[in-house]
Amino acid sequence: MRLAALTFALTAALSAALPAQADWKPSGPVKLEIGFGPGGETDTMGRAIAAEMEKQTGWDVIAENKPGGGGVAMFTGVGAAAPDGLTVGMGVSMPVLINLVLRGDKLPFKLDSFDYLATVTRAQVAIVARADAPFDDLAGLVAWSKANGGAPVAFDAKPQELILRAVNKQDDAGIRPVSSKSSAEMIQNLLGEHVVASFAAGAHIEYLKTGALKMLASATGDRHAYAPDTRTLREQGYDLAVDPWFYFAAPAGLPADAKAALAGALDAAITSDTVRKLVANAFHADVDNRGPAGTAKMMQDGIGSVTVLFGQ
Hints:
Blueprint: H1 2-17, E1 30-34, H2 41-57, E2 61-65, H3 72-80, E3 87-92, H4 93-103, E4 114-122, E5 126-130, H5 138-147, E6 152-155, H6 158-171, E7 176-179, H7 183-191, E8 197-200, H8 205-210, E9 213-218, E10 245-251, H9 256-270, H10 273-283, H11 291-309
Parallel strand pairs: 1-2, 1-3, 6-7, 6-8
Antiparallel strand pairs: 3-10, 4-10, 5-8, 5-9
Helix pairs in contact: 2-9, 2-10, 4-11
Protein backbone atom coordinates (compact mmCIF):
# COMPACT_ATOMS: atom_id res chain seq x y z
CA MET A 1 0.00 0.00 0.00
CA ARG A 2 2.80 2.37 0.99
CA LEU A 3 4.66 1.47 -2.24
CA ALA A 4 1.58 2.32 -4.32
CA ALA A 5 1.21 5.66 -2.54
CA LEU A 6 4.88 6.43 -3.09
CA THR A 7 4.63 5.52 -6.76
CA PHE A 8 1.58 7.75 -7.15
CA ALA A 9 3.36 10.65 -5.41
CA LEU A 10 6.46 10.29 -7.60
CA THR A 11 4.36 10.12 -10.75
CA ALA A 12 2.46 13.27 -9.74
CA ALA A 13 5.69 15.11 -8.99
CA LEU A 14 7.24 14.17 -12.30
CA SER A 15 4.09 15.18 -14.16
CA ALA A 16 4.12 18.56 -12.46
CA ALA A 17 7.74 19.09 -13.52
CA LEU A 18 7.05 18.41 -17.18
CA PRO A 19 6.60 21.42 -19.47
CA ALA A 20 3.00 22.28 -20.29
CA GLN A 21 3.69 22.36 -24.02
CA ALA A 22 2.38 18.81 -24.39
CA ASP A 23 -1.10 20.12 -23.49
CA TRP A 24 -1.09 23.18 -25.78
CA LYS A 25 -0.76 23.47 -29.52
CA PRO A 26 -1.12 26.64 -31.61
CA SER A 27 -4.41 27.05 -33.46
CA GLY A 28 -2.55 28.26 -36.55
CA PRO A 29 0.91 29.29 -37.77
CA VAL A 30 3.19 30.87 -35.18
CA LYS A 31 4.69 34.09 -36.52
CA LEU A 32 8.21 34.68 -35.25
CA GLU A 33 8.79 38.36 -36.04
CA ILE A 34 12.41 39.53 -36.21
CA GLY A 35 13.01 43.20 -35.46
CA PHE A 36 15.79 43.62 -38.03
CA GLY A 37 16.18 43.26 -41.78
CA PRO A 38 17.22 40.11 -43.63
CA GLY A 39 20.80 38.93 -43.81
CA GLY A 40 22.10 40.17 -40.47
CA GLU A 41 23.17 38.14 -37.47
CA THR A 42 19.82 38.61 -35.68
CA ASP A 43 17.91 37.47 -38.76
CA THR A 44 20.16 34.44 -39.25
CA MET A 45 19.79 33.40 -35.64
CA GLY A 46 16.02 34.00 -35.58
CA ARG A 47 15.45 31.92 -38.69
CA ALA A 48 17.58 29.09 -37.36
CA ILE A 49 15.56 29.04 -34.13
CA ALA A 50 12.27 29.15 -36.06
CA ALA A 51 13.38 26.19 -38.18
CA GLU A 52 14.40 24.21 -35.11
CA MET A 53 11.09 24.96 -33.40
CA GLU A 54 9.17 23.77 -36.44
CA LYS A 55 11.26 20.61 -36.74
CA GLN A 56 11.00 19.69 -33.08
CA THR A 57 7.35 20.55 -32.43
CA GLY A 58 5.69 19.98 -35.79
CA TRP A 59 4.14 23.44 -35.55
CA ASP A 60 4.04 25.78 -38.54
CA VAL A 61 6.56 28.49 -37.52
CA ILE A 62 6.99 31.41 -39.94
CA ALA A 63 9.91 33.83 -39.54
CA GLU A 64 9.14 37.36 -40.74
CA ASN A 65 11.38 40.44 -40.84
CA LYS A 66 9.86 43.57 -39.28
CA PRO A 67 12.75 46.08 -39.23
CA GLY A 68 12.58 49.61 -37.89
CA GLY A 69 13.86 51.50 -34.88
CA GLY A 70 16.13 48.71 -33.64
CA GLY A 71 13.14 46.47 -32.96
CA VAL A 72 10.73 49.17 -31.77
CA ALA A 73 8.51 48.89 -34.87
CA MET A 74 8.28 45.12 -34.50
CA PHE A 75 7.54 45.18 -30.77
CA THR A 76 4.89 47.85 -31.36
CA GLY A 77 3.02 45.30 -33.47
CA VAL A 78 3.69 42.41 -31.11
CA GLY A 79 2.46 44.41 -28.12
CA ALA A 80 -0.83 45.10 -29.91
CA ALA A 81 -1.36 41.50 -31.10
CA ALA A 82 -3.79 39.06 -29.50
CA PRO A 83 -2.21 37.04 -26.64
CA ASP A 84 -3.05 33.74 -28.27
CA GLY A 85 0.45 32.33 -28.69
CA LEU A 86 0.54 32.94 -32.44
CA THR A 87 2.80 36.02 -32.37
CA VAL A 88 6.32 36.09 -30.93
CA GLY A 89 8.92 38.83 -31.38
CA MET A 90 12.71 38.54 -31.39
CA GLY A 91 14.73 41.64 -30.65
CA VAL A 92 17.85 43.03 -28.98
CA SER A 93 17.41 44.51 -25.53
CA MET A 94 19.50 47.70 -25.67
CA PRO A 95 17.67 49.60 -28.47
CA VAL A 96 14.31 48.82 -26.87
CA LEU A 97 15.49 49.80 -23.40
CA ILE A 98 17.03 53.04 -24.64
CA ASN A 99 13.76 54.00 -26.30
CA LEU A 100 11.78 53.13 -23.18
CA VAL A 101 14.05 55.32 -21.05
CA LEU A 102 14.35 58.29 -23.40
CA ARG A 103 10.87 58.45 -24.91
CA GLY A 104 8.77 55.93 -23.07
CA ASP A 105 5.87 58.37 -22.87
CA LYS A 106 5.68 58.41 -26.68
CA LEU A 107 5.92 54.64 -27.26
CA PRO A 108 2.75 52.57 -27.68
CA PHE A 109 4.16 49.88 -25.38
CA LYS A 110 5.68 49.61 -21.91
CA LEU A 111 7.93 47.08 -20.24
CA ASP A 112 4.87 45.18 -18.99
CA SER A 113 3.23 45.06 -22.43
CA PHE A 114 4.88 41.67 -23.00
CA ASP A 115 5.23 38.17 -21.64
CA TYR A 116 8.94 37.43 -21.78
CA LEU A 117 9.91 33.97 -22.96
CA ALA A 118 13.62 33.41 -23.53
CA THR A 119 17.07 34.82 -24.13
CA VAL A 120 19.51 33.40 -26.67
CA THR A 121 22.85 34.99 -25.88
CA ARG A 122 24.45 38.26 -24.91
CA ALA A 123 26.93 40.16 -27.04
CA GLN A 124 30.36 39.89 -25.46
CA VAL A 125 31.07 43.62 -25.15
CA ALA A 126 34.55 44.45 -23.90
CA ILE A 127 37.09 47.26 -23.87
CA VAL A 128 40.38 46.19 -25.42
CA ALA A 129 43.80 47.60 -26.26
CA ARG A 130 46.87 46.47 -28.16
CA ALA A 131 48.98 43.96 -26.27
CA ASP A 132 51.84 46.47 -26.02
CA ALA A 133 49.70 49.27 -24.55
CA PRO A 134 51.26 50.72 -21.35
CA PHE A 135 48.12 50.04 -19.31
CA ASP A 136 46.13 46.94 -18.37
CA ASP A 137 42.83 48.24 -16.99
CA LEU A 138 40.53 51.26 -16.94
CA ALA A 139 42.54 53.06 -14.27
CA GLY A 140 45.62 52.72 -16.43
CA LEU A 141 43.77 53.98 -19.52
CA VAL A 142 42.48 56.99 -17.57
CA ALA A 143 45.96 57.79 -16.25
CA TRP A 144 47.43 57.50 -19.76
CA SER A 145 44.72 59.75 -21.16
CA LYS A 146 45.38 62.44 -18.56
CA ALA A 147 49.13 62.29 -19.16
CA ASN A 148 48.87 62.39 -22.96
CA GLY A 149 46.25 65.01 -23.69
CA GLY A 150 43.36 62.58 -24.18
CA ALA A 151 43.07 58.97 -25.28
CA PRO A 152 41.22 58.24 -28.54
CA VAL A 153 38.89 55.28 -27.90
CA ALA A 154 36.70 53.72 -30.61
CA PHE A 155 32.99 52.92 -30.24
CA ASP A 156 30.22 51.86 -32.64
CA ALA A 157 27.06 52.16 -30.53
CA LYS A 158 25.53 54.98 -28.48
CA PRO A 159 25.68 53.17 -25.11
CA GLN A 160 29.42 52.66 -25.61
CA GLU A 161 29.94 56.37 -26.23
CA LEU A 162 27.91 57.13 -23.11
CA ILE A 163 30.16 54.87 -21.05
CA LEU A 164 33.21 56.83 -22.21
CA ARG A 165 31.53 60.13 -21.40
CA ALA A 166 30.53 58.82 -17.97
CA VAL A 167 34.15 57.83 -17.27
CA ASN A 168 35.22 61.33 -18.33
CA LYS A 169 32.64 62.86 -16.01
CA GLN A 170 33.70 60.68 -13.07
CA ASP A 171 37.47 61.01 -13.49
CA ASP A 172 37.98 64.06 -15.73
CA ALA A 173 39.82 61.56 -17.93
CA GLY A 174 39.77 63.50 -21.21
CA ILE A 175 39.04 60.37 -23.25
CA ARG A 176 38.14 61.23 -26.86
CA PRO A 177 35.37 58.96 -28.23
CA VAL A 178 35.96 58.00 -31.87
CA SER A 179 32.85 56.96 -33.81
CA SER A 180 33.17 53.78 -35.92
CA LYS A 181 30.85 51.80 -38.17
CA SER A 182 31.52 48.28 -36.93
CA SER A 183 33.53 46.06 -34.62
CA ALA A 184 35.77 45.14 -37.55
CA GLU A 185 36.56 48.80 -38.21
CA MET A 186 37.27 49.42 -34.53
CA ILE A 187 39.69 46.50 -34.33
CA GLN A 188 41.52 47.60 -37.48
CA ASN A 189 41.84 51.16 -36.17
CA LEU A 190 43.19 49.76 -32.93
CA LEU A 191 45.73 47.50 -34.61
CA GLY A 192 46.69 50.36 -36.94
CA GLU A 193 47.33 52.60 -33.90
CA HIS A 194 44.68 55.16 -34.87
CA VAL A 195 43.12 54.67 -31.42
CA VAL A 196 44.64 53.43 -28.18
CA ALA A 197 41.64 51.41 -26.99
CA SER A 198 38.33 50.22 -28.37
CA PHE A 199 35.04 48.61 -27.58
CA ALA A 200 34.41 45.23 -29.21
CA ALA A 201 31.58 42.71 -29.22
CA GLY A 202 33.16 39.41 -30.21
CA ALA A 203 35.51 40.33 -33.04
CA HIS A 204 38.30 40.83 -30.52
CA ILE A 205 38.36 37.27 -29.20
CA GLU A 206 40.55 35.78 -31.93
CA TYR A 207 43.06 38.61 -31.37
CA LEU A 208 43.13 37.86 -27.66
CA LYS A 209 44.00 34.27 -28.54
CA THR A 210 46.86 35.31 -30.84
CA GLY A 211 48.18 37.79 -28.30
CA ALA A 212 47.70 40.87 -30.50
CA LEU A 213 45.19 42.43 -28.10
CA LYS A 214 44.49 42.44 -24.38
CA MET A 215 41.25 43.04 -22.55
CA LEU A 216 40.97 46.01 -20.20
CA ALA A 217 37.44 45.41 -18.93
CA SER A 218 34.22 43.54 -19.43
CA ALA A 219 31.62 46.15 -20.38
CA THR A 220 28.74 43.81 -19.55
CA GLY A 221 27.25 43.09 -16.16
CA ASP A 222 29.59 40.22 -15.37
CA ARG A 223 32.91 38.74 -16.45
CA HIS A 224 33.25 36.89 -19.73
CA ALA A 225 33.79 33.14 -19.69
CA TYR A 226 36.74 33.40 -22.09
CA ALA A 227 38.44 36.05 -19.87
CA PRO A 228 37.50 35.17 -16.28
CA ASP A 229 40.33 37.23 -14.77
CA THR A 230 39.30 40.49 -16.46
CA ARG A 231 37.16 42.61 -14.16
CA THR A 232 33.93 44.33 -15.13
CA LEU A 233 33.58 48.10 -15.24
CA ARG A 234 31.63 47.92 -11.98
CA GLU A 235 34.38 45.91 -10.34
CA GLN A 236 36.78 48.64 -11.43
CA GLY A 237 34.77 51.40 -9.78
CA TYR A 238 32.36 52.48 -12.55
CA ASP A 239 28.65 51.78 -12.09
CA LEU A 240 28.22 51.19 -15.82
CA ALA A 241 27.33 48.26 -18.08
CA VAL A 242 25.84 47.44 -21.45
CA ASP A 243 24.05 44.14 -21.78
CA PRO A 244 22.70 43.69 -25.32
CA TRP A 245 20.69 40.48 -25.08
CA PHE A 246 18.91 38.73 -27.93
CA TYR A 247 15.51 37.83 -26.53
CA PHE A 248 11.95 36.68 -27.28
CA ALA A 249 8.67 38.17 -26.06
CA ALA A 250 4.97 37.79 -26.81
CA PRO A 251 1.93 39.97 -26.07
CA ALA A 252 1.16 40.20 -22.36
CA GLY A 253 -1.65 38.00 -21.12
CA LEU A 254 -0.74 34.65 -22.66
CA PRO A 255 -2.60 31.70 -21.16
CA ALA A 256 -0.29 29.84 -18.80
CA ASP A 257 -0.21 26.70 -20.95
CA ALA A 258 0.57 28.65 -24.11
CA LYS A 259 3.36 30.58 -22.38
CA ALA A 260 4.88 27.38 -21.02
CA ALA A 261 4.65 25.68 -24.40
CA LEU A 262 6.27 28.56 -26.27
CA ALA A 263 8.99 28.93 -23.65
CA GLY A 264 9.69 25.20 -23.77
CA ALA A 265 9.78 25.08 -27.57
CA LEU A 266 12.11 28.08 -27.69
CA ASP A 267 14.41 26.55 -25.09
CA ALA A 268 14.68 23.29 -27.01
CA ALA A 269 15.49 25.18 -30.21
CA ILE A 270 17.96 27.57 -28.58
CA THR A 271 19.87 24.74 -26.91
CA SER A 272 19.96 22.59 -30.05
CA ASP A 273 23.36 21.76 -31.58
CA THR A 274 22.49 23.81 -34.68
CA VAL A 275 21.84 27.03 -32.76
CA ARG A 276 24.70 26.44 -30.34
CA LYS A 277 27.15 26.20 -33.24
CA LEU A 278 25.65 29.24 -34.95
CA VAL A 279 25.98 31.38 -31.82
CA ALA A 280 29.54 30.17 -31.23
CA ASN A 281 30.58 31.02 -34.79
CA ALA A 282 28.76 34.36 -35.07
CA PHE A 283 29.25 35.75 -31.57
CA HIS A 284 32.07 33.72 -30.02
CA ALA A 285 29.67 33.04 -27.17
CA ASP A 286 27.60 30.26 -25.64
CA VAL A 287 23.82 30.19 -25.73
CA ASP A 288 22.34 31.42 -22.45
CA ASN A 289 18.59 31.04 -22.12
CA ARG A 290 17.41 32.59 -18.88
CA GLY A 291 13.81 31.50 -19.31
CA PRO A 292 10.67 33.62 -18.79
CA ALA A 293 11.49 34.88 -15.29
CA GLY A 294 15.15 35.52 -16.09
CA THR A 295 14.30 37.33 -19.32
CA ALA A 296 11.83 39.60 -17.53
CA LYS A 297 14.46 40.34 -14.87
CA MET A 298 17.05 41.09 -17.56
CA MET A 299 14.77 43.72 -19.07
CA GLN A 300 13.87 45.23 -15.70
CA ASP A 301 17.52 45.41 -14.64
CA GLY A 302 18.38 46.84 -18.06
CA ILE A 303 16.06 49.79 -17.49
CA GLY A 304 18.14 50.69 -14.44
CA SER A 305 21.45 50.38 -16.31
CA VAL A 306 20.28 52.48 -19.24
CA THR A 307 18.84 55.09 -16.88
CA VAL A 308 22.29 55.44 -15.29
CA LEU A 309 23.97 55.67 -18.70
CA PHE A 310 21.72 58.46 -19.87
CA GLY A 311 21.68 60.26 -16.54
CA GLN A 312 17.88 60.16 -16.34
